[in-house]
TrEMBL record:
Reported function: Required for flagellar hook formation. May act as a scaffolding protein.
Protein family (similarity comment): Belongs to the FlgD family.
Domain FlgD/Vpr Ig-like: 101-172
Name assigned to this protein: Basal-body rod modification protein FlgD
Keyword field: Bacterial flagellum biogenesis, Cell projection, Cilium, Flagellum
Pfam (any one): FLgD_tudor
Keyword Heme included in the entry's annotation: no
Organism, as annotated: Piscinibacter gummiphilus
Keyword Nucleotide-binding: no
Superkingdom as given in the UniProt entry: Bacteria
Amino acid sequence: MAVSNVQSAYDKLNAKSGVQTANEAGAADRFLKLLVAQMQNQDPLSPMDNAQVTSQMAQIQSVTGIENLNKTVQGLSGQFMQMQALQGTQLIGRDVIVPGNKLLIENGKAEAGFELNTAADSVKVEVLGPSGHVLDTLNLGAQSAGAHEFTWNAGTNATATGVTFRVTAMSGSTKLDTTPLMHDTVSAINTSGDSLTLELKNFGNVAYNQVKAFN
């Protein structure tokens, strides 16, 4: 029984969907039994190659080690999720700033913001009604790179709903990338799946890692 035959038997024992992810402890035990049987029945005039045996032993140890590492990582991931959930509960009832272009009008005004990757010569914010028509335009002038906030006085639109905004930033004749930022309040957290989600009071859900700031 050659070493290559032992390897072939070991591969068959482990192969499931093309990946060696079966019960590693059981596979290792069966592999060692095959190896011992080979040694007991080897030809005394043609003994096994020590280098090949060492290689096979190293492989089974490597596979088992990877499996143990995966279990450790999964455990750490679970602990990290629990820590995130604990932090998330502290945000319930707090105001947060997250990516989005919706405006919530309260006491006749709405607050929102935007983020620039690079400085802009001019920034324009257009407030849009539910049908997409422009309700108002705010010319904010030159702005540096980073996050900025603005306040819109709603006036006669104080009771309007479904209001959004659009940011246009220019550097010379070049239009710059912008990220709109909206304000909302965290009403609950959701830990289902493999990520933490914040449930917002007015504008749906957002991933915890999307929060830019909170008040």
